[in-house]
Amino acid sequence: MLTKKQINTVLDTIADMYPDAECELAHRNPFELLIAVVLSAQCTDALVNKVTPALFEKYKTPEDYLAVPLEELEQDIRSIGLYRSKAKNIKKLSQSLLDEHHGEVPATREELVKLAGVGRKTANVVTSVAFGIPAIAVDTHVERVSKRLGICKWKDSVREVEETLMKKIPEELWSDTHHRLIFFGRYHCKAQSPNCDSCPLLDLCREGQKRMKRREKQRA
Which of 30, 81, 110, 220 has the fewest CB atoms in 10 Å of its CB? Predict the structure, then answer.
């Protein structure tokens, strides 16, 4: 496992690599962000961003989503995986926003996770990006990178990864680090073919060093 000093080196290096990392889901307000994050479950941000321009032009408020039949909303998002369940959740959460929050997106994780289709990761993204509340949302990239680098243990659950990162990273860096780890995992430390041979963190990365040794053996 990395020491505190080594973790600081990791954070500084990734910050240098991706100083402008931010949420890549296109949105103009907390409600659009909430819808976009719900749609992004088990789907790429790039695909969601292809669907949301027309979607957000047609649906601007929770009332708009409730005003159409479920089948029509399904057709509007059918290019996105799990579109049927996501359409149902969007209508349910829209109803909840009107019934319990005056049509507004709540700013706390505790209230957000009560909405249909909203888990802890989605709630953390919304509170962090829309309301500026420090949070670390653990998606597949954050989990993979944290474990490969040795910030977290391989056996850690997603919740344990989040708690470990919150413990080891200063709170004022949670939101920026969340975005930078996503960028690092999405564009550099990829799931199938990480760029270990050009990685500035190779000296600290246990997984990268193992992979490089395997490559050397294969070449020998």
Answer: 220
Q: How far is residue 90's CA from residue 54's CA, in Å, rounded to a whole number?
A: 16
Distance separating alpha carbons of residues 124 and 112, to the nearest angstrom: 9
Q: State yes or no: is 155 an active-site residue.
A: no
Residue tagged active-site, from 12, 121, 167, 203: 121
Helices (H), the chain: 4-17, 30-39, 45-58, 62-66, 70-76, 83-101, 109-112, 120-131, 140-149, 158-168, 174-187, 206-219
Of the candidates 139, 168, 176, 197, the residue annotated as catalytic is: 139
Q: What is the pLDDT of residues 87-124, one digit of tens each?
A: 999 999 999 999 999 999 999 999 999 999 999 999 99
121 carries an active-site annotation? yes
